[in-house]
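Continuing the series of single-chain predictions for the mutant panel. This is the parent chain; the variants come on the following pages.
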Amino acid sequence: MSIHAELAAVTDRIIAASRDTRSAYLALIEREAASGNDRPKLGCANLAHAYAGTDEQRDRLREGRSMNIGIVTAYNDMLSAHATYYRYPEQMKVWAIEAGATAQVAGGVPAMCDGVTQGYEGMELSLFSRDTIALATAVALSHRTFEGAALLGICDKIVPGLLIGALRFGHLPMVLIPGGPMRSGLANKDKAAVREAYAEGKVGREELLDAEIAAYHSKGTCTFYGTANSNQMMMEAMGLHVPGAAFANPGTKLRQELTRKAVHQLAAIGWNGNDYRPIGHCVDEKAIVNAAVVLLATGGSTNHLIHLPAIARAAGIVIDWEDFDRLSKVVPLLTRVYPNGSADVNAFEDAGGPPFVIRELLKGGLLHPDILSIAEGGFEQYARKPDIEGDALVWRDLPDVSSDPSVVATLDAPFAEEGGFRILAGNIGRACIKVSAVDRDRWIIEAPARVFTTQAAVQDAFKAGELDRDVVVVVRFQGPKANGMPELHKLTPPLGVLQNRGFRVALVTDGRMSGASGKVPCAIHISPEALGGGAIGKIRDGDIVRLDAEAGVLEALIDPAEWDARPLADSPPAADGTGRELFAMMRLGADEAEKGASAVLAAAGL
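Parent structure:
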């Protein structure tokens, strides 16, 4: 089927905007590739250092004739999603030898858990951990002793950070290797109900802790469709996984064989063979568009409205919120996965998962089928589902209809005709909103503002009963320059309670909400941010604020002359403690959310 006209138009817009930067990027990786296999050219002492840490592979490494795979791992055993990687490197070394290659752990990258830091000071390091991961990835690959790389990471900032760093070594073939979601525990909807009951004082801390532990109970990603699992959906659509690898559970034969296949396939696409597929060519304008499309089609995390532009910039590609907005108007919503429904990612996988969604989008001309994926057989392979037959890994065609149509829909009967993303603009600034989980009768909220500078203050006002009314909660000085743009996920339960009580409620902020944001309309990522002179700094308690997702409007209903004359609110002092002072250079250097909120990319002129 031919490509949808709007998909083609948006892609052309991105190609035009990226012409100079993409050309410079491709020239960079061509120069790097032209240097050939660097390892045999290194001095003998350099090579001896590189090989000294391994006994079992030293002779093979010394020959220098086969691919040496650099493993960049985000393993730690504090993140359930990354604890699965504990044994991966030793297994991958064996599988590399099977494929005539070798493998070494090139380096580790930090991987913090937003679920642990939500609502606390550590969350102010979260977004900038992505830049830190990118830098650590570059350090790991800087030794020039690798002909390919395997990137082990799953969650929030980890996958974007790995990709940003890896793309600066774009002449190397690379594969992303996920670990899969934990099996289902307490249903996400039931967990959210306990949180709301706790916010109202109806249950105590012990009941809340019991519910949380029942939900987050074992190794693997969290089972809601937040940023981590949105990452995996995007990697499938960009062709950077072994097809169908996203949501196979840890500890299964299928998961093991998918990882084994990833190592074998990486060895097959090196520059010494006839199927060279460097990551810098895999991640092109069409692959970035594919990532945006599946994000919209599945109601994915709003965090990727920041991350995807940053990933794209690392490959010389320019994408902005207008591209998302235009795509959202033609991409249907094909899944109902929590928080956009009651099902979790395991139910999504059982109902057809990413392959089903990709197949349906391909049928409608809503994905580019001609991207350079890492998979043998081309991108169409991502529309088939992996399985184990005997001891062999196979891929099967999917049925015409999902096994659970309440979770995954076909293109001709979507849950919504649009993807559920909107740009909002007005005298407060430019923002974005995810409406795929918001009831249509709440797409327009007009109410008096109540202004805060911390989410703790919002919670205090809620507990005091000060927000029991129609209200637009404004939380400012939460942008990247102010405090690192922490997620404001702690606001979800109290705002949800207010909405359940029948009030017309919305959130307006220059901060972030996470992939767990849901039923309350939230105008987020407002640019310019308050610390950068943004007009959100002019709002006062009692101002009538209108959020209109139908018309794409966000404005304070104030006389224009008065609005122009109003001074900006004073900025709070920069906080220290929990290491936040060490990230001052990142706060000072970060650019706006729509560009990716990255100090590293901004300073590099990318």
